[in-house]
Each structure stands twice: as structure tokens, then as C-alpha cells.
Amino acid sequence: MFQLAQNTLYDWAGYLGVGFYLASYALLQMGLVRGSHYPYAIMNLIAASLVLLSLSVKFNLSAAIIQIMWIIISTFGICRLYVIERTTRFNENELRLINDVLYDMPKPLARKFLNRGIWIDADVGTELTREGADVTNLVYLLNGRADVISQEKSIASIRGGFIGEMNVMQPGPASATVVIDQPSRIFVVPGEALRKTANTDSEFRAYLQEHLALATRTKLIETNSRLSQSEQRK
Questions:
Q1: Which of 51, 52, 84, 169 could form a disulfide with 17, with the two C-beta atoms 3.0–4.6 Å apart?
Q2: How far apart are CA 149 and CA 125, in angstroms?
Q3: CB neighbours of 79 closer than 8 A, spacing ≥ 6?
């Protein structure tokens, strides 16, 4: 009776391991976990360990080898993530950018983004985009101020955040001219470099598109709010 109960316990360990395998893969396909993040690696480590445990009573060499290799690979992945997280460093300006517009992007991907651009002290009159001309750079305004001009009229001021986010990944004309009107610190990334990186790194592309879309939504909400307030004053 004890042996039967023990065998049943091992069987259920195997079933649970299969469940972890299926759940991790389903979550990956649904975009709820990333292949290079801790949750996916940990779930696979648990799955392989449970299935290997179940093989201790119904041994199969080929199956055992697969589980052992899966445990080794998952452990390596977890250690690699830990080392990358511990060794990736950002300066003060970079941290402000990340916290402002890339707040949940993993450190390695944020580092990849930052490595493709440069910091510039922009003087008054520096043109960041021109109305009707293709957007060639993604710009982050750390401090200072930029004037937004449409049809030769000033329509808004920008004091921070992304500029050019709507048309940099799929090149298109800027909807307005943006000009620095106070000495500013900006971060400039060539659109070509972003597109090249996004084409070779799907995870980088997903995070970047998410944050650019959020920046666009935020600007639209702010614009609608200003228009509404303007109508109420009339």
C-alpha cells in the first residue's frame, strides 16, 4: 500500500511537471512572460525537476537526459540574468530617462537602447523635427523646453519626454516643427539604429513599441485636455 501511494506521488510530480512545461509555453506565446526573464526560466527549471523526479520510479534514460539538460540550461539562464542585472550600470541622466519613459524595460534592453544614442546639450533654436519632413531621430528631452510649431504658429511647449515617437519606427512626416527654446539636455537616437536593433531583437522591439505608444497616448490626452480647457474659456 505504501509503495502504491509512493508511486502515485511520483506520478503526480510528473503530471505537475508537464503542467509547468505547458503553462510556461502558453504564457510565452500569449506574451505574458518573456523568454529571457526569470519567470520563464524558473518555471522550466521546476518542470524539468519534477519530471526527473517522476522518472526515478519509471526510469527512461533518454527522457532523463532531456530533463537533466533542461535543468542545466535553465540554471545557466537564471545565473546569466542575475550577473547581467548586477553588472549593468546607469549614470544619473540615464536613470532619469529610464524612470521616465522606459520604466519597466529590463536593464539589458535599456542598456542596448542607451548605447545607440548620444547626449547633447542643445542650444536655443536647435530644430528637433520639421513639419512635413520625415522624422529621422527619436529625441528624449531631459530638461529645458521645446516649442511646438504648426503652420507657423506656436501651439504647445514640451518640457520632457520623447519627441518624434510617432514616426520614428515607421518613417513618416512630422506633424509639427519642434524647436528648442531654452538651453536643454537631450538624448538623440537615430531612427535607423532603432529599427535595425528592433528587427534583430523581438523583445527589444516589443518593449520599445509599448513605451512609444504610451508616450503618444499621453501626449494625445494632454492635447485633448488643453483643447477642452481652451473651449471652456471661450
A1: 51
A2: 12
A3: none
Contact 181, 159 (CB under 8 A): no
Mapped onto helix, strand or coil, the DSSP state of residue 201 is coil
Q: Which long-range contacts (CB under 8 A, 24 or more apart) does 101-105 make?
A: 101/140, 101/161, 101/162, 101/211, 101/215, 102/207, 102/211, 104/207, 105/207, 105/208, 105/211
Q: Which fold has domain 92-232?
A: Jelly Rolls (2.60.120)
- For residue 7, what pLDDT is reported? 62
Q: Which residue has cell 471652456?
A: 232
Digit-coded pLDDT (tens) for 167-200:
999 888 998 999 999 999 999 999 999 999 999 9
> Which pLDDT belongs to residue 135?
94
Q: Show the beta-strand stretches assigned E in 73-192.
A: 118-122, 127-129, 137-150, 153-158, 161-163, 177-190
pTM exceeding 0.90 = no
- DSSP class per residue in 151-175: TTEEEEEE-SEEESTTTTTTT-BBS
Q: How far apart are CA 103 and CA 108, in angstroms?
A: 13
Beta bridge partners of 188: 118, 139
Per-residue pLDDT of 16-62, as tens digits, reads 999 999 999 998 888 788 777 888 999 999 999 999 999 988 888 99
